[in-house]
Specification:
Oligomer: heterodimer
Structural class of chain B: mainly beta
Radius of gyration of chain B: 14 Å
Shape of chain A: globular
Number of strands of chain A: 11
Largest sheet of chain B: 6 strands, mixed
Strand content of chain B: over 45%
Amino acid sequence: DTAVSQTPKYLVTQMGNDKSIKCEQNLGHDTMYWYKQDSKKFLKIMFSYNNKELIINETVPNRFSPKSPDKAHLNLHINSLELGDSAVYFCASSGGASGANVLTFGAGSRLTVL
Amino acid sequence: AQSVTQPDIHITVSEGASLELRCNYSYGATPYLFWYVQSPGQGLQLLLKYFSGDTLVQGIKGFEAEFKRSQSSFNLRKPSVHWSDAAEYFCAVGPPGGYQKVTFGIGTKLQVIP
């Protein structure tokens, strides 16, 4: 069983469209995150939720809206996509026996905006 | 603000040679420190972490890292590199305590030649 799973793995879309990426973890962790990795591999945190409550909200355009229906799921919706949104988006979770700061990552969702 | 510097963007080593990847951090007190590895097309996987105690920490896949407070460093080492170690390596820093923001370095790409 995949611990942190993201769908879709690849997403190609036109500028101006709206898209969503879904994330689910089966580790029983309390905290989930979205990270963005740009073309230079730089990894930057976007959001974090703890037990469905938003606890980290970095300087991200409000076109990005996370939603956590329960502590095992954290989805990312992006409105009015722009070329600069092209990146790999990683979902991660933390908590449990591994520790609150130890991140378990999904395989990533590569978004290409044309 | 916390930050991480990985001065080497790209390192090439011969298979069987020793490896040291450099990491320097900036943080007001003793932070939590991590090394993650990312294979092509994959998410990040934790190699090892330092929270407190013994400054030499052992990780998976034969890696170790040493925390040196006086140098604000947390360098990653492996005595003998295998071709399968070719990947991107990320150093990360986070404040002590749970559910805090973890900041990543820009990564070091390791190439292993036969």
